[in-house]
Design brief:
Helix content: 40-55%
CATH architecture of the largest domain: 3-Layer(aba) Sandwich
InterPro entries: KsgA/Erm (IPR001737), SAM-dependent_MTases_sf (IPR029063)
Shape: globular
Enzyme class: transferase
Number of helices: 22
Strand content: 5-15%
Protein name: rRNA adenine N(6)-methyltransferase
Number of domains: 2
Number of strands: 9
GO molecular function: mitochondrial transcription factor activity; RNA binding; rRNA (adenine-N6,N6-)-dimethyltransferase activity
Main location: mitochondrion
Structural class: alpha/beta
CATH class of the largest domain: Alpha Beta
Length: about 500
């Protein structure tokens, strides 16, 4: 084949292929155009006989709305009463997300055990707050123990009529509102200067911080957001802080307990900046375990891949039992951390615990140059390491079953340029902070500028609540954000 012939074929072949492709497309389009459309036909309704048979069947409508595995457990497990399930709306029984913020007690035996703990050493005049009573299993036990100064906060209004009719509650004893969602109400108040939180807390006695606790509270919490709101109220000295000191009996998962009770040996995923702040602000005590399936809705581990990956063991351990924990703000907190320094301390922890591997001296010299020599030459930091008693008591490794006394005179042993923030206990962080703010260069340091830049974020603490876990925002939050954006524009 000559070069001219080859050149001619190269020019003709693309045209022929284009013509063939065009012809095929025309044939396909014609075939599609001539294909008749199938008309849509509604499915016929079930005959009346079938409806009557379904009505007369042994399985009631309420039972069909209950998840099968839940109904089977309540029917077959000794000590469980399946009739309790009929008192819950189907929407509650079907929820099973790890981010669920409200749970309901659904076992009378567990309700009696918790009532015994709540009423132990309870003064007759002290207010007892129950959050999300639901059908009132715990409420009934409390009234049988002669608790008259009782207040109920229920999120779901469908329980209101039953609670009022069953227990003949006094006026204003039952309030419809999301008490565990105070962090959300505070967030909304920040947009429109509302009074949602104040309205929720109205009627609860106010006392000074150094006085006795003002009320006792019981709730079942599913996320860390409620506790973070309490920490923020102390830092900002607003809202919940104005009530004084309070006593909380909370049921929570082992994963959530580890977030507040872990020690520095637990690792970065559990021992975070929020853990340090919580252990300095509050005393906590592990009281016992309760079956997790005695609370509705049931929580599954399949919804959040991140939590399942990072804390798989804790979630598996918490599948059967949850923890009952007593939490009280520290009465001597201001003896070790002045109220004016609460915001500075929160910023100090936030700045330096972005990573637990941050080294202390290089980090502090970023704010005050050449300050590391003061720490290294300080005789309190150069003493030899001494054996200290294990605060956990050897029961649960890397978790505190009971808080240790607060001190601001706990120095790190063998402090050097390689010491990291993750090696410090909460008391050692407080000791280092108090020394840092007492240096003469502190008030002119860039640290104060960083605090001012973060002040707005600290005031709106709820904006940073989703750094560990994400949750869908309610419609009211979305509308508030849209309104805020419109006002800004």
């Amino acid at each position: 084949m000559t070069s001219n012939s080859l050149h001619m074929l190269q020019r003709i072949f693309p045209r022929w292929r284009s013509a063939q492709t065009s012809l095929c497309r025309t044939i396909v389009n014609d075939a599609v155009a001539t294909k008749p459309k199938t008309p849509r036909v509604r499915k016929p309704k079930a005959p009346a006989a079938a409806s009557a048979a379904a009505t007369n069947s042994t399985t009631t409508t309420a039972d069909t709305a209950i998840p099968k595995h839940v109904l089977e457990y309540f029917q077959t497990t000794p000590g469980m009463d399946a009739s309790v399930l009929k008192q819950f709306p189907p929407s509650i029984l079907r929820k099973s997300s790890l981010s669920t913020e409200r749970f309901y007690l659904a076992n009378r035996t567990t309700a009696a055990r918790i009532a015994d703990v709540l009423t132990q050493d309870l003064p007759a005049d002290r207010l007892l707050v129950e959050v999300n009573p639901g059908p009132g299993l715990l409420t009934e036990q409390l009234l049988q123990r002669n608790v008259h100064n009782l207040r109920l906060y229920e999120t779901d209004a469908s329980f209101e009529a039953r609670l009022n009719a069953t227990f003949n509650l006094p006026k204003d004893a039952l309030r419809i509102g999301d008490f565990n969602g105070l962090w959300r109400l505070s967030y909304l108040d920040g947009f429109d200067n509302g009074q949602r939180v104040c309205g929720m807390l109205s009627g609860i006695p106010h006392r000074k911080w150094q006085e006795e606790v003002s009320f006792r509270l019981f709730s079942v919490i599913g996320t860390i957001k409620y506790l973070r709101y309490l920490m923020n109220s102390i830092t900002q000295q607003s809202e919940f802080f104005s009530l004084g000191r309070y006593e909380m009996f909370l049921v929570m998962s082992p994963l959530l307990f580890s977030h507040i009770a872990s020690t520095k040996d637990a690792g970065y995923k559990l021992y975070r900046g929020g853990t340090i702040v919580f252990q300095l602000y509050f005393e906590h005590e592990f009281l016992g375990k309760v079956p997790s399936k005695h609370f509705l809705p049931w929580c599954t581990t399949g919804g959040t891949k991140k939590l399942r990956t990072l804390h798989k063991k804790l979630i598996e351990d918490g599948a059967e039992e949850w923890y009952l924990v007593r939490i009280v703000p520290r009465r001597n907190l201001f003896d070790h951390l002045l109220p004016d320094n609460l915001g500075l301390f929160a910023s100090f922890v936030t700045q330096h615990y972005v990573s637990r591997r941050n080294r202390i001296i290089p980090s502090l010299e970023h704010w005050i140059p050449h300050c590391g020599a003061r720490l290294i030459l300080n005789s309190n930091y150069t003493r030899k390491s001494s054996s200290k008693k294990d605060p956990t008591g050897g029961v649960l490794p890397s978790q505190l079953l009971k808080s240790v006394p607060l001190t601001s005179n706990d120095y790190v042993d063998n402090f050097n340029i390689f010491t990291e923030f993750g090696e410090l206990t909460p008391a050692q962080v407080l000791t280092l902070f108090n020394e840092f703010i007492n240096w003469s260069e502190f008030h002119q340091s860039p640290f104060m500028q960083a605090v001012e830049s973060q002040k707005h974020k600290q005031q709106r603490f709820a904006r940073s609540l989703d750094d560990d876990e994400s949750a869908d925002e309610p419609g009211e939050l979305q509308r508030a954000k849209s309104k805020k954006s419109t006002d800004t524009l």
